From TrEMBL:
Pfam families in alphabetical order: DsbD_TM
Protein name listed in UniProt: Cytochrome c biogenesis protein CcdA
Domain of life of the native organism: Bacteria
Start and end residues of each Cytochrome C biogenesis protein transmembrane domain: 12-228
Keyword Transmembrane helix among record annotations: yes
Organism from which the protein derives: Oceanomicrobium pacificus
Length: 249
């Protein structure tokens, strides 16, 4: 469907990491707690109405346009990162090393080895008073993707770095689409099962520090793999272990 040489073992492995990174971004300490009130606001209702079971379809519609907004930004960023990588294709190895070092530093931040004050600053764009409309939810999705930097920024940067290392713009864009899927689908599920998700999220809050450390391990590992070139080794292993992957594309 994507054409010859678009999807291979290396990209499939990167897609798996991007998907997991998207889910972890949703579970991050600065995203998960605001999901229910965000969804209620976008649907033009309040938390009391949501918890009593009112206007579920409106919440789901708002979530859909919100996810569409953030996906628009992520796809654009994936396209731009891949295009940047194409321009500096001759220095791809050097770029991988630099990006790997930066990503490992982000990982150490989330592991608590040291803290980077800049990552605690947020650049939230004001979308205005547009709750209750599909367009407003879409604009909020755009603002969310651009401005929620403290938690999703480092993870997003890691996925963008992987996108920049891909051999084509199409591959990098696919990678960011998978990241958007990992972040967006939980939003849709939270909207679909709003009453249940509110209580589920409340139970997850005491585990925010553990989730943050998982993000740190993921980032550090991805950075190390980029520096060492392990991605290529693992892609060859995947193709040897699962020959059917070589026929995908």
């Amino acid at each position: 469907m994507f054409g010859v040489d678009i999807i291979d073992g290396s990209l499939l492995m990167a897609m798996g990491i991007a998907l997991f990174a998207g889910v972890l971004s949703f579970l991050s300490p600065c995203v998960l707690p605001i999901v229910p009130p965000y969804l209620a606001y976008m649907a033009g209702t309040n938390m009391n109405a949501v918890q009593s079971g009112g206007r579920d379809w409106k919440v789901l519609q708002a979530a859909g346009f919100f996810v569409l907004g953030l996906s628009t930004v992520f796809l654009f960023l994936g396209f731009a990162a891949s295009a940047f990588g194409q321009v500096f294709l001759a220095y791809q190895r050097e770029m991988a090393i630099v990006a790997g070092i930066v990503i490992m530093i982000f990982g150490l931040h989330f592991l608590g080895i040291f803290r980077i004050p800049l990552l605690y600053r947020e650049m939230r764009l004001d979308a205005g008073d547009r709750g209750g409309s599909a367009f407003g939810a879409y604009v909020l999705g755009l603002a969310f993707a651009f401005g929620w930097t403290p938690c999703i920024g480092p993870v997003l940067g890691a996925v963008l770095s992987m996108a920049a290392q891909e051999g084509s713009i199409a591959r990098g864009t696919v990678l960011m689409a998978v990241y958007a899927l990992g972040l967006g689908v939980p939003f849709l599920l939270a909207a679909l099962f709003m009453r249940r998700s509110v209580s589920a999220m409340a139970r997850l809050r005491p585990h925010m520090e553990r989730i943050e450390r998982i993000m740190g391990v993921l980032l550090y590992t991805v950075g190390l793999m980029m520096i060492s070139g392990t991605f290529s080794d693992l892609s060859y292993w995947l193709l040897e272990t699962f020959p059917a992957l070589g026929r995908i594309g």
